[in-house]
Amino acid sequence: MSEAGGERSTVAVQPTDGLTYNPSDPLYWDEAALQKELDRSFELCHSCRMCFKYCQSFPTLFAAVDRYGHVQAIPPAVARQVVDQCFQCKLCYTQCPYTDKEGHEFRLDFPRLLQRAKAVWRRRDGVPWRDRLLADPDRLGHIGCRTAALANWANRFRPNRLAMEAVAGIHRDKLLPNFAPTPFTRWCRESLGETLESGGGTHPVVLFATCFVTYNNPEVGKAALAVLQHNDCRVACPAVECCGMPALDAGDVALAQAKAKRNVTALLPWVERGFRVAVINPTCSLMMREEYPLLLDDPADRRLADAARRVAAAVRDLGEYLWELRSEGHFRTDFRSTPGGTVAYHAPCHLRMQNVGFRGRDLLRQIPGVKPRAVTECCGHDGTWAMKRENFPAALKNGEKAFAGMREANAEVWVTDCPLAAIQFQQACGVRALHPVEVLARAYREDGFANPLAPTPVPA
To answer: In the sheet that 370-375 helps form, which strands lie side by side, from edge to edge?
Structure first.
């Protein structure tokens, strides 16, 4: 008997007729169909409870079932809380025994289901102003880079941060990245010319820099370009947009689909020429691999759907791509300097979700004297989720194990494949983490580690 006085009911855990994760399917937007799948998934998860240690969604769900007696008695406001507390780290999916990837008949995908719920509710109720703002990093980036000095000052000016919290709901203490005066895309045009393609090289690859590198940290992109060229790659840097993950996280599926369509259209000609697509941020490579084929799976446009699948098949995480070069005997190990000793390496959640191994760590091992110590805990940042006033404390709490693991490595050099995780480590620990490709770029120079905390020196 529950506190509310209701009898515990049993909900069937076999897939219902409301199961779909495809936004182009009208069933996706049907609230009754969605509710069937929410009830089924909540029943499965509360009966298993293996994921209690991940985000706050699970403790909230389990406590609600215990209080109200069964999943169908959970109030809508509590169900909404379960959805809002999910920050799409995907770790529950990697551990779940009931997924399609495990070949299980239940076909559970808890993160995608909660993403669907948010999308359905946002279509019905509208996307809040703050989420619309954060959903489009390209718009913010264009403005921020044009006014970089002013924007960066404003992001550090306490009275302005208090106003941002009051008006936009961005937590006053959240460390925000600087905007770059020269975006990576402009630097590429100036460096590569109008073709946006480096001359020479026998391994054709598109460098997908991601919006964060483009607008906030071009040095990572410059290091990536230098390392790829050093390894005899023919590198293209065509104009692309944000991968669309922030829009999808905000429940703005239409914007996510628009960005996916534009990126697929821009990348397909290169893929047709035999180029692979090396992506700097694992969140973006995950989005392009896993979500683009679903977002663009529209029966009315089979050519676009096929293009999305072809582009997805060509996508590689940057470390994964460099490791493929090594496996083929093409990765150069003519390193001229080394950080030496232990390097603290953080494996991002979205890299783990892709199940391609920790290739950033493995590449670090190629540098003489380097002993990476891997930390596989979630850092808690997860896109724009940590920026929000109501989520900021939970984001830091979620990252405590990762912070502790990185500190315990007792390493001068910290590394993560995720640029946003680097922001989180700087916020919580005061340490600037490098991307693995920045370490490789330094190692190809004689003086690369004279000052590990300085901006990455890029080979000429």
So the answer is: 370-375, 341-346, 413-416
Q: What is the pTM of this model?
A: 0.93
What do you get for the CA distance between the two ends of the chain, in Å? 71
Tokens describing residue 325: 């070069």
Q: What residues contact 408, with CB distance under 8 A and at least 6 apart?
A: none
Please tell me the least confidently modeled range out of 53-57, 313-317, 455-459.
455-459
Percentage above 70 pLDDT, the chain: 96
Cα 411 to Cα 275, 302, 364: the distances in Å are: 37, 51, 14
> pLDDT tens digit string along 279-303?
999 999 999 999 999 999 999 999 9
pLDDT for 185 equals 92
Domain extent listing, the chain:
26-125, 333-443
C-alpha closest to that of 319 among 281, 369, 367, 346: 281
Reply yes or no on whether the pLDDT at 443 is more than 60. Answer: yes
Query: d(Cα 436, Cα 414) in Å, to the nearest integer?
Result: 9
274-298 burial, b at 16+ Cβ within 10 Å, e below that, comes to: ebbbbbbbbbbbbbbbbbbbbbbbb
Give the amino acid at 296. L
Report which residue type is found at 213.
V
Q: Which residues contact 356 (CB under 8 A, 6 or more apart)?
A: 316, 317, 320
| Best CATH choice for the domain 333-443 from the list 3.40.1000, 3.40.1130, 3.40.50, 3.30.2410 | 3.40.50
Phi-psi region of 378 (alpha: psi -120 to 50; beta: other; left: phi over 0): beta
Facing residues of 278 across strands?
207, 316
Between the CA of residue 445 and those of 68, 226, 434, 457, what are the distances in Å?
Answer: 63, 11, 16, 8
Please classify residue 410 by burial: count the beta carbons closer than 10 Å to its beta carbon, then call 0-12 exposed, 13-18 middle and 19+ buried: exposed
Check if the beta carbon of residue 65 is closer than 8 Å to that of residue 42. Answer: yes
Q: Choose among 208, 231, 233: nearest CA to 220.
A: 208
